[in-house]
C-alpha cells in the first residue's frame, strides 16, 4: 500500500475523489480508509527496528491523511453535509498516527534521531498542526466533540515535544469557551479532563514541563477572556494541583519506602474528596487499602475500606460509583455492596487482631452480633 500511495500525487487524489458518483459513497470510502489506516498503524506491520520502512510508510500515510482532510473540509463541513462520525474517525486516526511508538523520537539514540529528522522531519509536528487546524475549522460543530475528543486531544498534548505542546494545548481553552458559550459552564470538559489526566499520568505520560506549560498557556488564554477569567483560573488551579499530585504519586508508586507511597496516595484521595469526585476518591481508597494489606497492616486496611462502606446506604438503591476490586457482579444495590464490604472489614479486623465494636460507628450495633456468629463458625 505504501508503494501505491507513494506513486500518487495531489492531482491523483483529487481525480480519484471525483470518481465517486455520490457523497454517501465518498463518505463510505473515507470511513473505511480511516479505519484501515488506523488499524495498520496500530498493528505495526514492520518490526520496530525497521526504521526506514516505518518512516516511509508513515510519510505516505501522513500525506494521504492530510489530503483527505482537505476533502473533509470542502465536502463534509457545511450544516447540510456535516458527518459527525466521519470527522470523529479522522480525529482518532490523526491522534493514533501522532502517538504511535515509531514516531516518538525521544526514544531513539541521538544519531538515529538526527538521521530521521534530516530525512523525514518530525511528522508529529505536521499532523499536530493539521489536527489543530481541523479543530478550529469545525466552527459551530465543535460542541458535538465535547467531551468525546477531550481524551484524544489530551493524549496528543502529552507527547513530550515542546512545540507540539505549545501549539495544541490552546485547544483546551477553545473547548472550554465553546461549552461555556452554550451552557454558561464547562463542567463536561472539566470532568472529562480530570478523569483522563488520572489515567494518562498513571500510564507514564506527562512531566513537570507539561504541568508548567498547561498552567501558563491556559492561564494566559483565560485571562484574555473576561467572562472566563475567574472560572478559568479556578479550573487551571484544580488541574495543575491534580497534575502535581499525580506526578508525585507516579514517582513513588514502586518505591520501597511505604511511607512515601501511602502519603502520596492519601494526598490524592483527599484531593478527590475535596473536589467531590467520588468515583476517583473510591479508586484511591482501594489503592491505599491494597498498600496496607501488602504490608500486612490489616487493621488499617479495614479502616480504609470502612471509608467506602460509610458512603453507602442500607437501601436497595443502585450503586452510583464503579465497583472496585474483586466485587461480585451480583452486587447491584448499595445494601449488597455494604454487606460485602463489612464482611471484608470484619475479616481484616480479625487478621489484625482488632475488635469490631466502635470501629463501624452506628452500624456496629447491627454488625457486632453478625461478626460474632461468623467467628462462631
TrEMBL record:
Entries under Pfam families matching the protein: DHR-2_Lobe_A (PF06920), TPR_DOCK (PF23554)
Protein name listed in UniProt: DOCKER domain-containing protein
Domain DOCKER, first and last residues per copy: 272-377
GO BP annotation list: cell migration; myoblast fusion; small GTPase-mediated signal transduction
Top-level taxon in the UniProt lineage: Eukaryota
Record keywords: Guanine-nucleotide releasing factor
UniProt cross-references to InterPro entries, sorted A to Z: DOCK (IPR026791), DOCK_C_lobe_A (IPR043161), DOCKER_dom (IPR027357), DOCKER_Lobe_A (IPR046769), TPR_DOCK (IPR056372)
GO cellular component, one term: cytoplasm
A single GO molecular function term of this UniProt record: small GTPase binding
Family: Belongs to the DOCK family.
Gene3D superfamilies recorded: 1.25.40.410
Amino acid at each position: 500500500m505504501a508503494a501505491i500511495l507513494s506513486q500518487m500525487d495531489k492531482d491523483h487524489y483529487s481525480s480519484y475523489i471525483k470518481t465517486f458518483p455520490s457523497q454517501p459513497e465518498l463518505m463510505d470510502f473515507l470511513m473505511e480508509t480511516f479505519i484501515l489506516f488506523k488499524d495498520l498503524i496500530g498493528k505495526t506491520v514492520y518490526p520496530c527496528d525497521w526504521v526506514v520502512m516505518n518512516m516511509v510508510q508513515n510519510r505516505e500515510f501522513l500525506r494521504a491523511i492530510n489530503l483527505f482532510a482537505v476533502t473533509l473540509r470542502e465536502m463534509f463541513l457545511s450544516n447540510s453535509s456535516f458527518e459527525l462520525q466521519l470527522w470523529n474517525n479522522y480525529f482518532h486516526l490523526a491522534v493514533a498516527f501522532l502517538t504511535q511508538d515509531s514516531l516518538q523520537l525521544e526514544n531513539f539514540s541521538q544519531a538515529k534521531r538526527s538521521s530521521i529528522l534530516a530525512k523525514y522531519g518530525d511528522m508529529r509536528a505536521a499532523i499536530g498542526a493539521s489536527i489543530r487546524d481541523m479543530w478550529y475549522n469545525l466552527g459551530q460543530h465543535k460542541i458535538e466533540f465535547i467531551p468525546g475528543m477531550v481524551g484524544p486531544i489530551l493524549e496528543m498534548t502529552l507527547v513530550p515535544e515542546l512545540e507540539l505542546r505549545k501549539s495544541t494545548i490552546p485547544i483546551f481553552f477553545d473547548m472550554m469557551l465553546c461549552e461555556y458559550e452554550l451552557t454558561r459552564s464547562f463542567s463536561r470538559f472539566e470532568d472529562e479532563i480530570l478523569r483522563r489526566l488520572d489515567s494518562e499520568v498513571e500510564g507514564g505520560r506527562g512531566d513537570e514541563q507539561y504541568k508548567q506549560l498547561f498552567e501558563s498557556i491556559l492561564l494566559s488564554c483565560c485571562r484574555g477572556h473576561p467572562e472566563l477569567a475567574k472560572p478559568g483560573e479556578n479550573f487551571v488551579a484544580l488541574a495543575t494541583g491534580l497534575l502535581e499530585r499525580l506526578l508525585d504519586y507516579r514517582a513513588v508508586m514502586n518505591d520501597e519506602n511505604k511511607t512515601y507511597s501511602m502519603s502520596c496516595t492519601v494526598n490524592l484521595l483527599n484531593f478527590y474528596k475535596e473536589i467531590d469526585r467520588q468515583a476517583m476518591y473510591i479508586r484511591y481508597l482501594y489503592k491505599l487499602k491494597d498498600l496496607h494489606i501488602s504490608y500486612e497492616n490489616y487493621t488499617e486496611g479495614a479502616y480504609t475500606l470502612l471509608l467506602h462502606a460509610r458512603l453507602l446506604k442500607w437501601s436497595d438503591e443502585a450503586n452510583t460509583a464503579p465497583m472496585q476490586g474483586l466485587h461480585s457482579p451480583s452486587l447491584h444495590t448499595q445494601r449488597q455492596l455494604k454487606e460485602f464490604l463489612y464482611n471484608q472489614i470484619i475479616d481484616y479486623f480479625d487478621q489484625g487482631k482488632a475488635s469490631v465494636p466502635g470501629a463501624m460507628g452506628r452500624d456496629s450495633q447491627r454488625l457486632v452480633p453478625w461478626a460474632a456468629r461468623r467467628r462462631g463458625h
